Amino acid sequence: EEGMAEMEARLAQARAASDDNAELHHMVDKLFRAISGIAETNAVQSSQTSGVADSVSFMTTVIAGLTASSEMTHVSANKLKNLTGQFQVSNA
After folding, report:
1. What is the pLDDT of residues 2-26, one digit of tens each?
2. Sign of torsion, CA 39 42 47 48?
3. DSSP notation for the chain
């Protein structure tokens, strides 16, 4: 009878350990799902960040072009201003 009680006690311990393992597996599974979700979110955000970087690069190129055009307009305006006094219309 003592051997039977010991065996039952060990079976109970084995069941308890099994229950603990099941809970542990459940928690690990939840952890992996959370990590997977974080990785997916990171991939989406990385793609969006890359798109923003491309847009900023394009805008920088456009601004450089506009700056060059503005400088050329300024130079042309100064040339016209300098020429203004050189020509006169005659009444002949």
Report:
1. 777 888 888 888 877 777 777 778 8
2. positive
3. -HHHHHHHHHHHHHHHHHHHHHHHHHHHHHHHHHHHHHHHHHHHHHHHHHHHHHHHHHHHHHHHHHHHHHHHHHHHHHHHHHHHTT------
Which two structure tokens, joined as six digits, stand for 14?
């084995």
89: left (phi over 0), alpha (psi -120 to 50) or beta: beta
pTM of the shown model = 0.51
Nearest to 55 by CA among 39, 73, 47: 47
Span 39-50, mean pLDDT? 92
Q: 44 is written with which tokens?
A: 């989406």
Take residue 40 and report the two structure tokens written for it: 């997916």
Percent of the chain topping pLDDT 70: 93
Residue 57's identity, in one-letter code, is S
